[in-house]
Amino acid sequence: MISTIDHDKGYVLQNDSQLRNATTTAKAPEEESSSVGLLVPATYTNRLRYECGRIINHQATDILVITLIVFNSILLGVETFGFAQNSSRIRHTFEALDSVCLILFTVEIGIHLIYRKLQLFREPWLVFDLLLVVVSWTSHSLDVGRAFRILRALLILGKMSSLKELVRALVTCVPRILAVGMLLLLILYVYGVIFTSLFKDLYADGYLDEDYFSRLDYTLFTLFQIMLMDDWATITKQVMVVYPWAWLIFILYILTTTFLVLNLAVGVISSAVADVNYEEIESQVMRASSSIGDRNDITIRTLESKIDDLTIIIEKLVQQQNQSTESLYTLNDDSF
């Protein structure tokens, strides 16, 4: 087991997994725990950090925080219904419960800060939690800010390993997603100029029920709508009244964007998720191999120790046999 030693403060700070195991084996100050190898600090400050570490790394704390996040998210959703808005008593009750949840979130991040000190700012998820709590307190009394309280539901991202891996996969594929986005913007611009040049007069001539293509910005918005397959057939049929061949250019655009570029983005994200899963499996295999290697080393050292003991016993037996042989020779000579 690995511990982080703080030489300036004179105590051993165990890692998260050790703290989870140590939650039920608290010892007195300066007493070494035989089960986890933890040296409990003697000073009040160090003792406080030790206790905060035990609390915040306990599995029950994780479950409690996740439950609190889910409860607070449901509470903010139910608060938008009419029965909660129309009754001042229910509204004040919901606001009080929301304040209690925010206080508990603040206590949690405060315990993290006491335990980790400035090391907290090296943990991206803890920094994210801290920012959400600070923003929640800043906007708590503002009418506009109250609408963004639901952002606290994002706290659950840092509490579940599966969501962490998914977010990490999305972050790793951001450069490739940006490349796909640039390709999509280029295709949109090319088709936007083409559609505007061909169909800009149709609305003025009364063939379209809305102004879809008279300006480039209108055309780009219309093409984005068509890319999402929103009412594209109606627009196409109105254009085909004047240009019967227009279906071809519309279908080419849909094939290029909806079925090619967007699926390319989905493939990039899927590949990133698969890479993260592969890395996780590889790390688990490495940890298992390391654990097996450590056990093998212990077994080899134990066998070597037993061999050394057997060697000593054999040497003593040989020495005793030599002494017995000499005694027999001496008795034989005396008998003659």
Q: What does it look like?
A:
This protein has 336 residues and is mainly α. It folds into 2 domains: 3-158, Four Helix Bundle (Hemerythrin (Met), subunit A); 160-336, Helix Hairpins. The chain is 72% helix and 2% strand. The protein contains 12 helices and 2 strands. A two-stranded antiparallel sheet has the order 1-2. β1 and β2 form a beta hairpin. α8 (161-172) packs across α12. The radius of gyration is 36 Å and the shape is elongated. The two termini are 70 Å apart.
Helix content: over 70%
What's the mean pLDDT score? 78
Helical stretch tally: 12
- Overall CATH class of the largest domain: Mainly Alpha
Q: Largest sheet, order of strands side by side? A: 1-2
> Strand-residue fraction?
under 5%
Q: Please give the CATH architecture of the largest domain.
A: Orthogonal Bundle
Please provide the count of β strands: 2
Q: What number of structural domains do the residues give?
A: 2
Q: Evaluate the radius of gyration.
A: 36 Å
CATH fold label of the largest domain: Helix Hairpins
Q: pLDDT under 50 segments (min length 5)?
A: 1-40
